[in-house]
Specification:
Blueprint (H helix, E strand, L loop, with lengths): L3 E9 L5 H11 L3 E12 L4 E6 L2 H12 L6 E4 L5 H10 L7 E3 L16 H9 L5 E2 L3 H7 L9 H14 L4 E3 L8 E8 L2 E9 L9 H14 L4 H17 L23
Parallel strand pairs: 1-2, 1-4, 4-5, 5-6
Antiparallel strand pairs: 2-3, 7-8, 8-9
Length: about 270
Amino acid sequence: MAPIALTIAGSDSGGGAGIQADLKAFSALGTYGASVITAITAQNTQAVTAVHGVPLDVITAQMDAVLSDLNVGAVKIGMLATPEIIHTVAEALKGYQGPIVLDPVMIAKSGDALLAEEAVQTLREVLIPRATVLTPNLPEAAKLLKDGTEADGPSAMEVQGRALCAVGADAVLMKGGHGKGATCHDLLVTRDGIIGEFTAPRLDTRNTHGTGCTLSSSIAAGLAKGLPLHQAVAEAHDYLQGAIAAADGLGVGHGHGPVHHFHRVWQA
């Protein structure tokens, strides 16, 4: 059977992030993708102009339909928007025993909010303890830890990663894309400390829409194929760097354009 990964996230009408990015990454990495849509956004490379949460019973019905029939090897969770949606997703996942990649989506690349302020605590309490790996960027990690202080380097990133593991995640991938310097550092952290460091040159491009979604779904694709966590993260990191490097060739939109998910298949 083909490996199957499930994305539970919002829809991006511009196609660069959310469900659309996840399904592209799954396919590019040889994994069959299924989806549960939690919210519909009117979105392009410049702004999010509308958000409509999917009714809770429809979210539950989607999840029941997928999990009752498909042999899902890994789940990626992205945009959840409200406390009610978080609780609904958590309830529907109660019987699921496979790995879960939790991307705590809070802000779109355009700067628009995708998670209600009151939902942050719910995410901490309800879903972080279910996560095989949590994948926050630096602002998201600071917000989840409720101190508002962004890590300013690898040492601080390790401290925050271990603190998030203490909240309940098995592992945390602290993403350094919002950091400074010529090199971007991502740290894979458990309660015991760093178990993996992934570095790449910081590329000079504005076309990074969907990078967080793409990385987390790429990790889920690797886990669905049975890879150990460290290898799944390493392969996802390499894939994303190639997608960012090829992004400028796409020429999509007038703002923060998407990465090139199929850079290994066709050249823009």
